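Tutorial, part two.
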Amino acid sequence: MHVIRITTDLTVPDVEEAKAFYADYLGLDGEDMGLDWVTRFVVPSTGAHIQLVSRDATASENPQLTVKVDDVDDAYAEARRRGYEVVHPLTTEPWGIRRFFVRAPDGTVLNIAQHRDP
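Running the prediction step on this input gives:
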């Protein structure tokens, strides 16, 4: 497994309400993900980005980080082999991502994810 990208996930009470701050005030470009509970904002000049999450659609808690990997099945097997707590099971979600949530030893919840091939 190799990490491709890491995204900070900020929990907000209302994604729509938060958009004004991140887009209008900070000048970030919003990327519509087609989901009402999560959106991504990007710094136009660098591509740096954050995600705003109100309440994850299928998991019992929100992650603090999303880690995109090249082989989520391998990442899942390795997390289990090491005895890490799996917070959300390995799942292929209807919006086109395969993922699981794992709790790091410090308590941080990570969304380990891979886009499905079309």
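The radius of gyration is 15 Å. In part three we will examine how such features are distributed along the chain.
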